[in-house]
Design brief:
Largest sheet: 2 strands, antiparallel
Number of strands: 2
Strand order of the largest sheet: 1-2
Shape: globular
Strand content: 5-15%
Length: 61
Amino acid sequence: MTAEAMRAAMQRYIELVDAGDVDGILALYADDARVEDPVGTPPLIGRTAIERFYHKGLGRN
């Protein structure tokens, strides 16, 4: 991935988080993605776990 593509992906991620668009955020992740947030905690593995994380974090229970 080029630096420009990474910047574009990050910009899109920020826009989606600001909009609270969980479905849009999830579309950025592979089915077997891993998220470690905050760093040092056990990773969330897979879209279902990541979806719960964003719903909780963005107040979209």
